[in-house]
Specification:
- The protein has a ten-stranded mixed β-sheet with strand order 1-10-9-8-7-2-6-5-3-4, sandwiched between helices.
- Strand 5, helix 8 and strand 6 form a beta-alpha-beta unit.
- Helix 2 crosses helix 3.
- The longest helix has 23 residues.
- With 375 residues, the protein is of the alpha/beta class.
- The two termini are 13 Å apart.
- The relative contact order is 0.15.
């Protein structure tokens, strides 16, 4: 698919008014457009951004293969609907290992905020997505918690919502394996029938949605995918896989090979990863704060979105083939803001970027069994 020009609005970033704004294209080899009248160019980009935003807010049909010019969901309901739509398209295309990632709690990172708050919010969102996915696809959805303790807690807490969700069941990664709780229950109440419990529901399921796993529980998910789900669809829902990947290889955690053989097979179909940055400059206001998000909505391209003062995310660069790594994402944001002022290859550019601009899992491409997580 040919790369599409994405431009952002210079007037929407008053903190960068003192630097020269310029339009930015995707990393595909497309020529940069230059305008002799910079004020007119900025005004034209502003009008284009407003028209694109108005079109999407009016609910008109948008070709998802071309990506989005702007994105700002009005509610979590809209966010879940967009994620479910992307999953449904991926399922219809025959994909079986999918990733969905977006902030489950507003303005709170799952590993910085209260653990229970994040876990419960994620279960609520996953339940809503499961109901919607069952309605849209007509398939049975099985929601997976990391272990039996969390499964029993969630089952009790959300039993009313679960009972009202047709085609949706709940289980955990360790279904079918003996546990202390199951052994204790069998002593009190007798052995459970094979036609009861989460394992029986899993056998009838078409789609599995896995949530709230920690790094050490990823191996249980791998065993579940290989032993129970097999060729059926598994969705890693808001598991913050990039955060979990960073623990691999450390003492007490699974080896890095888990990324190479398993996590690399999950294709991001709906992905929003927010980042905040700042840069010091020699003139007022001396510190410029800027933020953006790495965005992907299947079957669209990977997009770098710059956050405007209004809260709208506007596309400034995109790649239809390959995911941006951490350093590339930051460089695209800086270029869109006009903050990439150091000469290429200069000492100042090296000092600003540092020696390392990517993570080990972004670098270990030759060790991966699948490139799905990058595409």
């Amino acid at each position: 698919m040919a790369a599409r020009f994405c431009s952002t609005q210079a007037a929407c970033v008053p903190t960068a008014a003192h630097v020269r704004p310029r339009p930015h294209t995707s990393r595909a080899a497309a020529p940069v457009r230059r305008q002799s009248n910079h004020a007119a160019a900025a005004q034209q980009r502003c009008a284009t951004l407003v028209r694109a935003q108005s079109t999407e807010q009016q609910g008109e049909v948008v070709d998802k293969r071309a990506g989005r010019s702007t994105y700002r969901p009005a509610s979590y309901t809209e966010l879940v609907d967009d994620a479910v739509a992307a999953v449904a398209v991926a399922v219809s295309d025959g994909l079986t290992r999918l990733e969905v990632e977006f902030p489950a709690v507003s303005n709170v990172d799952g590993y910085k905020g209260a653990s229970d708050l994040y876990i419960d919010a994620n279960i609520q969102l996953a339940l809503a997505a499961s109901r919607k996915l069952a309605e849209v696809t007509g398939k049975r959805v099985h929601l997976l918690l990391p272990d039996e303790t969390e499964y029993l807690r969630a089952k009790d807490m959300f039993k009313a919502a679960l009972a009202a969700s047709d085609g949706v069941t709940m289980g955990h990664f360790r279904e079918g394996r003996p546990s202390l709780i199951a052994k204790f229950d069998s002593i009190l109440w007798g052995p459970q029938s094979k036609n009861e419990g989460p394992q029986a529901a899993a056998e009838k399921a078409d789609i599995f949605i896995a949530i709230n796993a920690s790094t050490v529980e990823l191996e249980d998910l791998e065993l579940y995918c290989n032993g129970t789900a097999k060729e059926r669809v598994v969705v890693a829902w808001n598991m913050e896989l990039d955060t979990l990947r960073s623990d691999l290889g450390l003492l007490g955690f699974p080896s890095k090979d888990l990324q190479h053989r398993f996590l690399s097979t999950f294709k991001p179909v709906f992905y929003i990863r927010q980042r905040d940055y700042s840069k010091s400059v020699a003139v007022a206001p001396f510190i410029i704060n800027y933020s953006g998000a790495l965005f992907r909505e299947y079957p669209g391209p990977w997009q770098v979105m710059l956050r405007q003062d209004s809260g709208v995310y506007a596309c400034v660069a995109e790649d239809p083939v390959r995911r941006y790594n951490l350093g590339e994402f930051k460089e695209e944001l800086m270029s869109a803001m006009g903050l990439n002022t150091e000469g290429e290859g200069s000492a100042m550019a090296f000092l600003r970027r540092g020696y390392k601009t990517s993570t080990w899992w972004e670098d270990d491409e030759d060790k991966e069994q699948s490139k799905a997580w990058r595409s």
